[in-house]
Write a structure and sequence with these properties.
The protein is 41% helix and 17% strand. It is of the alpha/beta class. 29% of the residues are buried. Pfam families: RNase_T (PF00929).
């Protein structure tokens, strides 16, 4: 982890259609955000909130059951515009997510509401980094990945802030492994031989 770089770990939860199919014009809307801002390997800020959906404001039974988010939660949440204002604080940061859906849905939601995408920094899909690093054929789920490290996820899966924290924890583990596997600099002959001992031997 570069000390000078500011990382923001983001996780969103989205609306879901019922199993029977997508209603006409349906698209996933962000209904929960979890964000962890990190600098110099230290957490600087956390943010968590429910977000009101506008195009399909009524949550489906499937969505409520799968995410454990109730209608009252989103009804009392911030607006999508307020979410964009919050994210704008981190416009130049490196954004790290697990999978590419979070940024795809954010961009689509911005487009649907006629709002400018708030983030300008580099975007990193940590699940792809993890896949490449370990040579996996398939992408690994967030909590399966952390369990493969012999750890447990933070809090509850599909709670946006807990998933953002878990993503940060995996990032630290992967970065640690990368440093461990980097080839050390070749040693010089001076490193291999203690010349002071050698000279003392010949001086006798």
């Amino acid at each position: 982890m570069n000390n000078y770089e500011h990382y923001v770990f983001i996780d969103f939860e989205f609306t879901m259609p019922e199993y029977k199919g997508y209603p006409k014009g349906f698209f996933p809307e962000i209904i929960e955000v979890g964000l962890v801002a990190v600098r110099n390997q230290e957490i600087q800020d956390r943010f968590s909130s429910y977000v009101k959906p506008t195009s399909f404001p009524k949550l489906t039974d499937r969505c409520k059951s799968f995410l454990h988010i109730q209608q009252k939660h989103v009804d009392d949440g911030i607006t999508f515009e307020q979410l964009i204002q919050q994210l704008g604080q981190y416009e130049s940061s490196t954004i790290i997510t697990w999978g590419n859906m979070d940024m795809k849905v954010l961009k689509q939601n911005c487009q649907k509401q006629g709002l400018k995408f708030p983030l300008k920094g580099k975007e990193v899909d940590l699940s792809m980094e993890y896949k490449r690093f370990f040579g996996d054929q398939n992408q690994t789920g967030l909590w399966k990945a952390v369990q493969e490290y012999g750890k447990e996820g933070t809090g509850k899966h599909h709670c946006a802030l807990d998933d953002a924290m878990t993503t940060f924890n995996i990032f630290k583990l992967v970065e640690q492994d990368k440093r461990y596997l980097q080839k050390p600099e070749p040693t010089t002959i001076g490193d291999r031989v203690d010349f002071s001992k050698l000279l003392n031997k010949f001086a006798l």
